[in-house]
Design a protein that fits this description.
The protein is an alpha/beta fold. The chain has helices at 19-25, 30-50, 70-93, 109-121, 138-151, 164-168, 216-228, 237-244; strands at residues 11-15, 55-62, 96-101, 128-136, 181-184, 203-206.
Length: 245
């Protein structure tokens, strides 16, 4: 492994794409692709914990996914519930805290209860935070944030101009830093309404690998690619190099 421990991303976000295509290639039902994908989730979470990545956010179920066939949505909800119940103790053993972003109120009540229970049990864990984006859409998140800002009276006449820093406190992601690295599997080159505000200066890596085939070795290659990049945040290359001296 040739990773530089001084250049590790603090926050990795992943769009886990390709479960359905993987299943089709294997001649299996789509849900089997999702089931295999959940096994990869466990592997990548463990890898990030070993690599001391403080935050990992996984795009598990988008707001648009509600439009999928009801039988697939129901199967995904059951798989999520099953995963949380089976892996709660492992999260505790590895001191990983579970958090969520998205409109969780739309999830089935039994799934909400398991999520709440898992979050409560892992609340004191402080080695890593695993964030599941569930019933999540970035535009929906921003609309809900603006509604919260308005309800707080911050848009009323005479209030100071709203700043990006203040708005960020009302986003679902207020408790963590913006992603340093965004990964999307399966060869698609779009963000699909995921963390639009937070990824303004993230490094993007799009890989052809389908999510069920994305292993620790793939993750390490992506992080190596990330570490070779120069993050300028609007500055010139010379300014960045001077700052590093």
């Amino acid at each position: 492994m040739s990773l530089d421990p001084q250049k590790m991303p603090r926050h990795i976000a992943i769009i886990m794409d390709g479960n359905g295509r993987w299943a089709k290639q294997q001649g299996l039902p789509r849900i089997e692709g999702h089931r295999r994908g959940s096994e990869i989730v466990e592997e990548i979470v463990e890898s990030c914990r070993t690599l001391n990545i403080p935050f990992l956010t996984l795009y598990a179920f988008s707001m648009e996914n509600w439009a999928r066939p009801p039988e697939e949505v129901n199967a995904l909800m059951s798989l999520l519930k099953e995963f949380l119940k089976a892996k709660c103790q492992k999260l505790l053993n590895n001191e990983i805290r579970l958090e969520t972003i998205g409109d969780i109120s739309r999830l089935p009540q039994d799934v909400q209860e398991v999520l709440a229970d898992t979050k409560a049990k892992t609340a004191a864990c402080d080695k890593m935070t695993l964030v599941l984006a569930l019933s999540y859409g970035a535009r929906d998140e921003m609309m809900r944030a603006i509604q919260k800002v308005s309800a707080a009276g911050l848009l009323s006449e005479g209030s100071p101009p709203l700043s990006p820093e203040v708005l960020a406190k009302y986003l679902d992601t207020h408790f963590m830093p913006d992603p340093d690295l965004l990964i999307r599997t399966s060869g698609e080159s779009r963000t699909s309404n995921f963390l639009l505000w937070q990824t303004a200066y993230s490094e993007f890596v799009f890989t052809e690998t389908l999510w069920p085939d994305f292993h620790e070795s793939n993750l390490i290659k992506v992080i190596e690619q990330y570490q070779r990049r120069e993050r300028r945040f609007g500055q010139t290359s010379d300014q960045v190099q001077d700052r590093a001296i």
